Amino acid sequence: MPYAMSVIVSRALPEIDGFKPSHRKLLYTMYQMGLLNGARTKSANIVGQTMHLNPHGDAAIYETMVRLARGNEALLHPYVDSKGNFGKAYSRDMAYAASRYTEAKLEPISAELFAEIDKDAVDMVPNYDNTTTEPSLFPVRFPAILVNSNFGLAVSMASNICSFNLAEVCETAVALIKNPDHNALSTLKGPDFAGGGYIVYDEAEMDKIYHTGVGAVKVRAKYNFDAESRCVEVTQIPPTTTVEAIIDKTVELVKDGKLKEISDVRDETDLSGLRLAFDVKKGYDPDALMQKLFRLTPLQENFNCNFNVLIAGTPRVMGVYEILSEWTEFRRQCVKRRVYFDLNKKKEKLHLLLGLKKILLDIDYAIRLIRETEEEAEVVPNLMIGFGIDEQQAEYVAEIKLRHINREYILKRTEETDALEKEIAEMEEILRDSKKIDKIIIGELNDISKKYGQPRKTMFLYDVTETAEEVEEEPEGYPVNVFFTREGYFKQITPKSLRMASDQKLKENDEIIFTAEVQSTSELLFFTNKHQCYKSRCSDFSETKASAMGEYVAAKLGMDDGEVPVFMAVTSDFSETLVIFFKNGKCAKVPLSSFETKTKRRKLQNAYSDLSDMVGMFVIKEDEDFLLRSSAGKMIMFNTVLVLAKSARDTQGVQVMRLTKAELSSVRPASEVEIADAERYRVKSVPSAGILSDDDIDQFKLF
């Protein structure tokens, strides 16, 4: 728990200033190194200096710097001005150079992080070894928490904050300060990602994110099509993916035959920026291809927002409204502390100047007083007595240089008192009036917006209609006769071909165990000896003739080694029920709809229970009678209405035949077997041990 708490409050989650501790330690070190206005220095120097505050190792510190750097292109407004190879956020394989090769300094916008850091605007805390201090937060002059994206993975919680346009954030913050009921959607249109792209706009989802801090933003790549070369060029991709991930998925789809429109895909990224090229085959519509790629590849992905921010050491998931409210309150405290710091400084200066003003009354007396004092230690007390000033004022007067002991210098200094008194009065008024503090914050936000604001990189797509899956043209159905054999062969024959045929050709010692006339669009379910179900359609198999042996199902559907189909079910709407009998005397009744899937999955595992061997499977449209025989020669007849249907495919079912030193050996629908006085075997409740009859055992040799 102590480790978990440490990760949550001291490592993984950002605070209201928009930074994690690792970011803060690095940037503060660069500020102390004079890199705000100075020339760039080697990154290795910065990393080494940062270890005074962050002892977690040079590799971790450098990785932090890489993400904050302009060259990496991860942030909308980078804080580090970089020179050299810092990798790219949109590439998985483009590695950054070692810290000894690259150089860095602070970007101009970083000045807004440190403008008041030396004026007691925030608390300074000891570093890890108590040799120096560092800021607990930055007194940021703009809501950096929303301007740059931030991701953190703590213990049992995470944070994922998307970036917004700086000018829009500042405008929204100002509007909310003036009017807390302001609709943020009217000024803050939506996220603005460093990599650009398009947002598929959903106003309801955006409003949810703004109020709760949780939701998904759908981001789509930007592309253009060159008709001459028939090449689609993607130049901007979602922030959650990489070029390599897109290429890998595209290649996989091409190999699987799901993308027949593409002849080649290339990464043509160079110094001019990201470029991903797709060569489109003739006859295919590039826009239709892109819609398919958006659906099947990471060219369109969701950015899952989770605005989890540390407020006073406590993680809170907040919407945009609440974050801006918390930042405004934090900023008010910073401004108050800054004004109070300046006020005390000016009061101290005024106090000293008032003492100097008294010296003006008789400069000669002051000089004579000092000259006639025999001991240096008595100078200050004598001045205090001679002019009625306190010790601080006397010390200030005593330290005046000889060249400044003239009426002109003293008059100029004392003239400042009027201006200081006016400034002090204004500052005291600011501290008393919260509206004046808000006015200062609004002025700073407007200045920052004008100075650093830039056009949006991410645009919006409105009224986009999407389908969850590709709509395929369904073939028109027609009647076919299907045959399934004990050895696992399947064939379908049209009624016309079947009428012209003679005997069915089968493998030696094979026999047909299922035949029916169905539609060519019917679904086929093949249950195997390894308790799996393979789904297919009649149309997936080729039509044949009675003189052909048919297709071997295990090979056709790519079953595992040693796996063979033992039962086939045919359905058109999955309205039937599957009844399964096991050697332990149990019967499971499962709606066939349990095998229906929304996706086009071909293979379903755990299709039926493996706790006992299966004796028989049957598909019924409504409850019917079944005759069961045990290895001890006992029989029962019961109706499946006595068994409750369960949606779990691998259910064990219920005990229908009570067995003692025996097992269920065979089962048949009662309608398929003729037995004299069959009703005497009927049971009205299950389980039942059954009745033994020698005559009937002979009848059941057909089982």
Kindly state the number of beta strands: 33
What is the third-level CATH name, the topology of the largest domain?
A: Topoisomerase II, domain 5
As for the number of domains, it is 5
Shape: elongated
Helix content: 25-40%
Q: Say which CATH homologous superfamily of the largest domain is assigned.
A: Topoisomerase II, domain 5
Mean pLDDT across all amino acids: 90
CATH architecture of the largest domain: Alpha-Beta Complex
Strand order of the largest sheet: 14-9-8-17
Instruction: Outline the low-pLDDT stretches.
Output: 471-475, 699-703
Beta-strand fraction estimate: 15-25%
CATH class of the largest domain: Alpha Beta
Biggest sheet, open or closed, and with what strands and sense? 4 strands, mixed
So what's the oligomer here? single chain
Alpha carbon gyration radius: 41 Å
